[in-house]
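Lay summary. Proteins are chains of building blocks that fold into shapes, and those shapes determine what they do. In this project we predict the shape from the chain. Here is one chain we studied, written as its sequence of building blocks.
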Amino acid sequence: MIQYGYISGVAMVFEAIVFGVILLAVGYWATMFIMGRRDDVLHGKFVEEEPAAEPPRLMRHVPRVRTAPRPNKDSLQALLTVIKRDLHDAAR
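And here is the predicted shape, written in a compact code that computers can read:
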């Protein structure tokens, strides 16, 4: 059995949602009107952006970053020796 109070409550919530959407639309319209976007407000058209007066600047060529030289066998052997010494010292 549906109680009268329940139906009334659902109707009140629906009414509040509809009122909220209308209030949001009026707020949006007022904001656009105050900001000067009257074409959007009156006709529902979005204003096209005006092209820039000066052409866009192109980026200057940036030189490539040099990479580190490839390690040779002697440098890798020296690095391995240093790592082994550090591990031996840390184990003490």
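What the prediction tells us: The mean pLDDT is 77.
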